[in-house]
Write a structure and sequence with these properties.
two-stranded antiparallel ribbon; alpha+beta; three-stranded antiparallel sheet; elongated; single chain; 2 helices
């Protein structure tokens, strides 16, 4: 039989702390880091879905495939830790690599 006791929680800045009554431990979770990890995962998932969709739809048109996949590269680099800036008026992107 399990007895459920209300969880003691506290919120401050981007941290959430709680007390686990089952093993008498006090845990702190950094919400900002958790959200950043989640967003990075979702963005990389979207990029992979776009790439797979382009390859599937343009299976017989390799030129169109390479053209569209080339447009995804700046976003992949951005996810890898580079900056991405859009040039005003041209619609092109500049990739800024941090050293």
């Amino acid at each position: 039989m399990h007895v459920f006791v209300p969880v003691r929680m506290e919120l401050k800045d981007f941290e959430c702390s709680y007390f686990n009554h089952y093993n008498d431990s006090y845990q702190t979770v950094n919400l900002k880091n958790a959200i950043e990890i989640h967003l990075e995962l979702m963005c990389s998932l979207y990029v992979e879905v776009v790439k797979k969709t382009v390859v599937t739809i343009y299976k017989s048109n390799k030129e169109k495939q390479s053209e569209l996949l080339g447009k995804v590269v700046p976003f992949e680099k951005m996810l890898g830790g580079c900056g991405l800036m859009k040039v005003k008026g041209t619609g092109e992107y500049i990739i800024v690599e941090y050293v």
